[in-house]
Amino acid sequence: MPHLLLLASYAFGNFYPINQNRRSNPIIKRHPLMEKMHMALTLELTPEEQAIMKGEQGETLQKVMQTVVTFGELFGATKLVDLQAAPHLAMSWSSDAVLPFIEIYEKLVAAGLKTYAPFTSNPKPMDHNNLDPGEEKRVVVQELHKHHHTLGELYSNLGMKENAWSCACFVPQIGNTPQQGDFISWSESSAINFANSYLGARTNRNSVGIDMMTAILGKAPYFDLLTDEGRKADWLIDCSALTKLPHPELLGAVIGLKVMEDIPYIIGMDDRVNALDDVVGYCKDLGAATASNGAVGLFHMEGVTPEARDQGRSLLKSDHQLYVISDAELQRVFNSYPVLWPDENAKPERVFIGCPHNTLAQLRWWGERIVSALEAAGKDAVSCPPYLFAHDNVASEFKENHPELKARMAKYGISVTNNCPVMYMTTPKQSDEIVCTNSNKTRVYSKSRFYMDDDLVHIIVTGQLPDQAPKAHP
User: Fold this and answer.
1) Domain extent at residue 237
2) Are both 243 and 218 inside the same structural domain?
3) Rounded-to-integer distance, Cα 330 and Cα 448, Å
4) CB-based contacts of 451: which residues, under 8 Å, 6+ apart?
5) Looking at the structure, do residues 323 and 409 belong to the same domain, yes or no?
6) Which residue of 124, 181, 196, 265 is 20 to 30 Å from 342, comparing CA positions?
7) What pTM, to 2 d.p., does this model score?
8) Residue 80 shares a structural domain with residue 221
């Protein structure tokens, strides 16, 4: 992201985080990105795009075009493509770290520019009504994200869809759901992965900043995951030996750790996955774990994802590698997770479920499972408070469709929040809380511990950690 910020800042005249005097700053002069910007263009532009590049539609849009074109040339793009569907942005936090972006976005607003379609964004870093960290920590959150209202106003002026803050923007309750083959230009690793993999749309793994530039322009450079060749698989992942359907965020983590940024083609899963009531939820969580434990922007699953259904194993590169995943391999990776708590036997304070945000089916599944376990144990309330993360629209539809279950959940102390668990767990003070989670993404980015679903229910009901072998400390 620093390179993207440098590039955009150069175009817009904001030289953060380095000295603003371009002439006297040797970093600006020497940086290869800046040298690239003064080279002759190799990316072919249409007459309309050339006019924008020349400033015929205003200086600000010219700078947007300069940023996008230079970004594309750095990655070998030969042209720009028109974007479909709608943008999705990752930046929903509002600390001082994002001030350079805010200043650029203010210039976009001043120029009267808007995104090509109403956009969605990642969840906000706070939901004190449903996930209250306490007075002392509330103050920390509010001081850290002190540009919260400024960012919200800017996003509204730039064309954000009303109340569309969720990493799972593609669920029907929000509606940012691209079609197969659509060109989009998203940030947020889990949303990118789902759009590419399950929906068959086409987006690269974009950084904060370039997502807004392409959204304003309505165009993106054509390279990598936007191309047919860039979507070919580097790995054949054989899951045929697994004795049962694995936890999606454990399987995704195992794959991500192995292939890193490469593209996997998964076999041996289709019968079990297609039999699920919520295939969307499973693929969402699997993809999020591949993206956070590795850097996977696209996976193919034989018989499940659209390109794998259409093209089969012809998607495999001729020199692809093989990775066989067994029950033992899953267990090996799970056992390797370090404990970042001061005391590995500490009493858990909260259980976080849903990163990425839960689907409607996942809210119901977890609600029924936790309530049934509490009733079977003769409990009047949870022993460790669970929080189910979901967008407000999903939570509202859940309450409307399942009012009795929602009432029982509230009675026992089961909360639904629109917060972002990763941002909660990476905020000072909050980051020291003893949290258990079903999300391997949350585990990667915080001190929280990843547990299987049965173990999380045990923790919620009893307040105690399950019996387990001692874990490694870093």
Assistant:
1) 231-336
2) no
3) 19
4) 436, 437, 438, 459, 466
5) no
6) 124
7) 0.92
8) yes
